[in-house]
Amino acid sequence: MNKPIPNSQLDAAAPVAIELRNINKRFGPVHANKDIDLVVRKGSIHGIIGENGAGKSTLMSILYGFYHADEGDILIDGQKVSIADSKAAISLGIGMVHQHFMLVDNFSVLENVVLGAEESARLAGGLDRARTELKRLEDEYELRVDPDALIQDLPVGLQQRVEILKALFRGADVLILDEPTGVLTPAEADHLFKILNVLKEEGKTVLLITHKLREIMAVTDTVSVMRRGEMVATKHTADTNMSELAELMVGRNVLLNVDKQPARPREKVLVVEGLNVTDSRGVRVVKDVSFDVKAGEIVGIAGVSGNGQTELMETIAGIRRATSGTLQIDGERIDLAKAAPSPAEMRDKNLAHVPEDRHRMGLVTSFAEYENAILGYHNAPEYSKGWLLDIAAIKQTAQAEIEKYDIRPPDPLLKTANFSGGNQQKIVLAREMERDPTVLLVGQPTRGVDIGAIEFIHKRLIEMRDAGKGILLVSVELDEIRSLADRILVMFDGNVVGERSPDADESELGLLMAGVDGDVT
Amino acid sequence: MSAGQLPRWVDYGLIPVLNLVAAFLVSGLVVILIGESPIEAVQILLWGSLGFGEGIGFTLFYATNFIFTGLAVAVAFHAGLFNIGGEGQAYIGGLGVAWACLLLDHYVPWWVTMPLAVAGAALMGAAWAFIPAWLQATRGSHVVITTIMFNFIAASLMVYLLVNVMSEPGSMQPETRTFEDGGRLPFLNDMMPWVDFGTAPVNFSLILAILACIAVWLIIWRTRLGYEIRSFGANASAAVYAGIDPVRTIIITMLISGALAGMMAINEIMGSQHRLLIEFVTGYGFVGIAVALMGRAHPVGIVLAAILFGMLYQGGAELSFEIPAITRDMIVVIQGLVILFAGALEHMFRPFLIQAFAVGRGAAAQAG
Known about the structure:
The complex is a heterodimer.
Chain A: E1 16-27, E2 30-41, E3 45-50, H1 56-63, E4 71-76, E5 79-81, H2 86-91, E6 94-97, H3 109-114, H4 124-141, H5 156-169, E7 174-178, H6 186-201, E8 205-210, H7 213-219, E9 222-227, E10 230-236, H8 242-250, E11 268-278, E12 284-294, E13 297-302, H9 309-316, E14 324-329, E15 332-335, H10 343-348, E16 351-354, H11 358-362, H12 369-372, E17 384-385, E18 388-389, H13 391-404, H14 421-433, E19 439-443, H15 451-466, E20 470-474, H16 478-484, E21 487-492, E22 495-500, H17 506-513
Helix pairs in contact in A: 8-17, 14-15
Chain B: H1 8-33, H2 38-50, H3 53-78, H4 86-104, H5 110-139, H6 143-165, H7 188-191, H8 205-222, H9 224-234, H10 236-241, H11 246-273, H12 284-294, H13 299-322, H14 328-344, H15 350-367
Helix pairs in contact in B: 1-14, 2-3, 2-13, 3-8, 3-11, 3-12, 3-13, 4-5, 4-6, 4-11, 4-12, 5-6, 5-11, 8-9, 9-11, 12-13, 12-14, 13-14
């Protein structure tokens, strides 16, 4: 059922504004876009939804000329085109509103709109003509904004309007909006949707990139779902619903049965109470979260990524600061706002952490494998002889882990970047699991890992559980959570919105993940 | 194997050699342009720097300076920091050397003064690096900007001190009095009677420089601190995950870097000039950047690159003496070209080589 519906069948009557055929893009070993086909009809609002890292932004960057596809064709109004850079995209009538605005803060609205589209080196005459044109656009699309205001004085909602005006001023017929509501308040977002509808009525085509289901439902005509670089489905928005889209986004291709006995949970080893986290933009990303993990059980956190799971894990691991909340680990109670422990101190309290993103955090990929085998544990006395690192002892540890976890190739001297994704993940897992932790935080244990390794990793996690460890597992693979966890917490928008047992109804979990209260429907 | 991967011998051997060859080819063109023979110029350059004892002595003397400043830049590189304040740190390091020598030279032999002078040089160099380090670590002010500004502050401060505070009473020279024997490092010529370095000021500092190389290698690759420095430099978020404190790492790295730069003053002040004088650093700090780049931030590479630049300094001086048409300024042009190709354009040949090796591998794979 998850077969992509060739979306040329949708609305076959309306002319095609943009068509992508068989787009492929690789970044080194990462296949960011796999055989993407996409048809966007003129005068429609087309949503592209997918999790962070699903390949949405890469695809749009190809369309806007930032990247070049390794393979595939782009057709605009039925004509095959090559888009060398953003200038070419603009001349083809494609405009982009970036997630992070590309505005000059201390320029006025008018100056920003004109920037890069000046008629000549002398500004004066052109500016006047631009002012008239801007006025016309404002009237036509109901995009009111004072042309002489400085950008730095405008709220973000208006800044975004300036970005839209900029694109229209350059004659855009197709507008790409990349996560446009990330920085907006709900009221500003509603206003944006009104603007998008006006644009549509005026015959413009809108491509809305987002990972928020509500927006798709609220404003789009058609929606395409991306997952792990693939376009997995295209549907009429009216014919689908949030829980179906949520399931499509997170994917359900891990259909492994994990052989396990019922858990025998014992005492609580990790208790989180009233945890609040605010990120660097000042947005509350974890809201009043409380839960506990007992020895001998796996607690799974399900949810569409970007709903606070990453921040929750990082805060418990000591990497992020909490604004309030307490943490009790192994009997000891810590106030996270006042006496925030460092990652090193959390490790000393027998907390091990397999981070979600092994490249960004879990590994130093330019290091030899054996050097990564002690990352975070490099201060342990067994790896030092006086002032110097005991290289022999470190290599011995690495060698033992390589054998136990079947890491291939079995070469502790090999540069970590040269291992495959699954083996890199095993390096991290081996390091964290072999330190006999009381609590183990595991983020996305099988992301980018092949089937054989997945099975092995799941088995090891169950063994850890049965050995009496408390495990907190975050995964975007719902099936992984369902097959491993003994209890499931669902996170949405920074809140834990519900706790379910692993044999709870799938669609119920889907609704919870979509932020729809399961008890209401 | 992902793109960007080259065999080690290419990375560490072929690329520096190619850069050097390119620099000399362009230099050769310049020499032809002014109507001289580039072959003859190269001969004089080589003979002047390596052809006789005194030439070798001078080459090694300059190389000593470059080893210290190159190591300083390299240590910071490993933490992902670009310390271009070696010039100022070496200059201020001179104060530490001078104070130790001025204080003790009448009373004790050189080998008693030396540890204190080394400590003084390291301490002052580190102190001069501390403020930029602290600003970078806690306020995010970029060290490239702050260290270069500190070079200017150092220059002004030293002029003030040497003119108003430290100059000999009654002297118009902006320099301190000349140290007695207790403030002079022995020349290698005197220590090793079986070699003849002539009047070259190459001195005991060369041994200190080699010891510094070994120390840097041990710190970076064999200690927990070095592990933390390299982790932080290669992947800062992984370092934070591993419990490595970024503030502490940045500051300690910059202190070590500054200390190494400061120790360059030992060679110039205690080893050769025997007095603290104005502008004794004259660009050694900046050339250290090229030395570190060319030496791939590894002590062995740095020693080789330092000797190369020592040869350019010494051989260049001989060259402008032998062929008057090639002026001192021309020598600076040649040195500049080497810095340009080895430093700024370090990666110029890399894409071609990656392509060449990828094609080679592809062909081999198809054949196999």
